[in-house]
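Input chain follows. Return structure tokens only.
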Amino acid sequence: MITIYKNEGGSTQIVDRVDPAWIQPGSGVSVWVDLDQPTPEESRVLSDVFQFHELAIEDALSELHHPKIESYGDYLYLILHGIDFSASEHCFTTKDIDFFLGAQFLVTVHPGVSRSIGKIGAVCSRDARILGEGPGMLLYRIIDTMVDNYRPELARLILNFKKDISSLRQVVLPQRDAVGRLARREFPLISEQLAYGFRDVHDHLVRLSDEAMFFQDRITSILDAHLSAVSNQLNQVMKVLTIIATLFMPLTVLTGVYGMNVPLPHLPGGERAQFWWILGMMLAMSGTMLVYFRRKHWI
């Protein structure tokens, strides 16, 4: 699906096509083209109208990429990630959003629904100032909304899986570097006013990356403590089983000897007393071993 917003003369409206004259520098028109899972025909606007570089178009239409920012002369190509968290399935994934920023236009490409773009798009259609402030400010608003969506998901991830925290860090760290380049005004398209806004977003990403690292360390500590508790419990079970096996070893030897089909010396008391003598020796050996184990603090 393709949605085209056009701002001219202080009013914003949704149109069905892009006039190449609108995207020329100094045209006085601001254009936002949003491509949501574009069809091959809809994707042709990237090459036919905006004439973006073929490698940038290929990246924008392909699978997930790492966050990055590249300059193509009169426009910037930026890849950032938005959170796609399914609480019911406890599944953390991200969706990449591709941005093409020029003096008079902003093009966004994303595979499926984006909460951040949907929110800004809904406001943009009602408030002409959103797009009237220029494509750069619109880019800042989208990125700021994306970063704001990270914090509530971070709170959920603390209670879920360590793997999700690691996934969050893998997204936030390169994204922090990409936004940092915007904050440092490495590109002529970024004005000083926009740089202040991107610095604020960069600070949020720095805090998020630090918190993610902190929580990952805490989760690692909790996991280590859990594994240690399980190991201690297993050791207790093994100790009990070892004591039982040790107690029965001499008893097995004793019963084995007296169970042999050979003449053996008889203990006092006659044949009826032999069983009680052997039972008494077994109890004495077991008691002696238990006392010895206790004095050694093995049990």
